[in-house]
Amino acid sequence: MLEVQHISKSFFRKTALEDVSMTVREGEIFGLLGPNGAGKTTLIRIINKIIDADRGVVRINGDLMTQKHLSMVGYLPEERGLYKSMTVEDHALFLGQLRGLSKRDVKMQLDYWLEKFTIGDWKKKRIEELSKGMAQKVQFICTVLHEPKILILDEPLSGFDPVNVELIKQELIEMRAKGKLIILSTHNMKSVEEICDRVALIDHSKKILEGTVSEIRESRKTGEIAIKFRGSMIAFVNALWTNFELVDKEILADDRFIARLKTRGETNFDDLLRAMMGQVRIEAVWEVLPSMQDIFIDLVTPKTEGTHA
């Protein structure tokens, strides 16, 4: 278990983090979210002992985190740092030995990962010969060579095409199943919904939200209902009367639609179904939950005077 307790940090009187606390457990993918400049990377660097906090502590399994704990950490920074003139194998040997691995162990691990990613012919290629996505994959491999118990990944999905995004996501899911503790800093909200167990949102140096993805989406719902039906949109709208407000509609075919509605007063599913009986043919009805993308934008977008979150 990794605990961040009341971390604060300033640079030249500018606050980067203010009293931030959170807990991440083994076997968990924890999403660290926030707009650019919110303080996420500063927090990650404090956890990695690259910089010191002004106040607060980081604990591993209850013990104050020290340099000795870094051997169990794999860190993929947002700034990519591969030596372009080195081959993939030489780079892995260099970084693996810095982590305390023998040459033999590095080569075994590198062969395993290259084979797993079906990129064995890259071993003797120079980094400068690789595309951005290929180099990103090599840096991911170098991050996990020493089989860390804790993975801290800062924007690990940037630079990847959709196929490789899915590949990395599946690797993270497998690592979670093996009991790894994973902190994932990303702007990819779709991936957050798909693989993160819990998330924290940092904005303007403060943690403003923490919880499971499902809890957060449930807590931010607005009472919208979606209905998929076959029939006439005019008949559908006429049947709504004043009990429901039509928020949006999607045309699937000439006579098939998805409509999003907002309830008014005490109306509910049953009222909607009764209103539609005999007017259109209902295929599905469901409650609309906001996406993490919608929630992120709503919480970090500055509100103009007179509006509320």
Explain the overall architecture.
The structure is a single chain. With 309 residues, the chain is an alpha/beta fold. It has 2 domains: 2-218, Rossmann fold (3-Layer(aba) Sandwich), CATH 3.40.50.300; 222-287, ACT-like. Chain A, domain 2 (Alpha-Beta Plaits), CATH 3.30.70. The protein has 10 helices and 14 strands. It has a 6-stranded mixed β-sheet, sandwiched between helices. The longest helix is centred in the middle third of the chain and has 16 residues, at 162-177.
Short structural summary:
This protein has helices at 40-47, 88-98, 103-116, 132-144, 162-177, 189-195, 213-219, 233-240, 269-276, 292-300; strands at 2-11, 14-24, 28-33, 55-60, 63-64, 73-76, 150-154, 181-185, 198-203, 206-212, 224-230, 244-253, 256-263, 281-287.
Percent helix: 25-40%
CATH superfamily of the largest domain: P-loop containing nucleotide triphosphate hydrolases
| CATH architecture name of the largest domain | 3-Layer(aba) Sandwich
Could you say what the CATH topology of the largest domain is called? Answer: Rossmann fold
**Mean of all residue-level pLDDT scores:** 88
